Amino acid sequence: MKYFAGIDIGSTASKVVVLSGTDMVDHFVLPTGWSSKETAGEIAHRLEAGGHPVGEDMKVIATGYGRVAVDYAAKTVTEITCHGRGGRYLLGRDCTIVDIGGQDTKVITVENGMPTSFLMNDKCSAGTGKFLEIMANRLGVDLPELFTLAAAGTPLAISSMCTVFAESEVISHIGAGEKREDIAAGVVDSVVSKVAGLCARHTLKGDVLLTGGLCDSAYLVERLSQKLKQPVFTHPLGRYAGALGAALIARGKAAG
Question: How far is CA 201 from CA 68, 97, 106, 118, in A?
């Protein structure tokens, strides 16, 4: 039996999808850690343990920040192409994909089944998952707890475009005795505002699909929908969009 694997090694998490024909037979996520090379090795071990070893029966396409570290991949493909293909497959129609990653945020337009244009945020972690992790740590909570707090709060202003300065604003709010719920709401609102600003610079076409590790947060989806003034869709496999797109490309190349 022939398998097709997509491996998306991101800056903070690595996602893997394995297809057999039209069926997804395996998918999992691992922390990327400090070494993409070591992560690629761990993924190979995990695939073998799951009954899908890397070899002649496995076609692998790698994408993401650490894609060059996957030395057993037949080819590497850009994140934009893979996220576009995977997101379009999940939603089932052309759309605009907003992917909030650990270190960057991407807005991708998909037309006729293929990515046609994209825009990425500036080289700063503000407006990304890493920003939220840093601020959650400052507030002594994890990400799910941060979103729960934010949903119960009224956003305080956190206006800095720089993560370091934004953290200083959070520290000032803490020192002033502001409610943790209001600070959390301000943190999430800051990220959502930056993502919405990126979307405003890139014409949105069709429905909007949120992918990445934050797509499971109902509160963030709600706030982004409000900012964009249109519904934002998600999918249970949204964080795997890049890996899924890579697996689909592997399957397509094999078929060709």
Answer: 30, 14, 12, 10
Sheet architecture: strand order including 114-120: 114-120, 105-111, 95-100, 207-211, 232-233
Please identify which residue in the block is written with the tokens 């029966």: 57
Could you read off the pLDDT of 8-28 as tens digits, one per residue? 999 889 999 999 988 999 999
Q: Report the CATH superfamily, name and number, of domain 3-81+241-251.
A: ATPase, nucleotide binding domain (3.30.420.40)
Nearest to 80 by CA among 46, 119, 134, 44: 119
Res. 40 pLDDT band, cuts 50 70 90: very high
Contact (CB, 8 A) for 14 and 66:
yes
Pairing of strands 105-111, 95-100: antiparallel
- Please give the C-alpha separations between residue 113 and each of 67, 93, 102, 208, in angstroms, as whole numbers: 23, 7, 26, 15
Structural domain boundaries in the chain: 3-81+241-251
Tens digit of pLDDT for each residue in 184-237?
999 999 999 989 999 998 889 999 999 998 999 999 999 999 999 999 999 999
Q: Which residues have CB under 8 Å from 114's CB, separation 6+? A: 84, 85
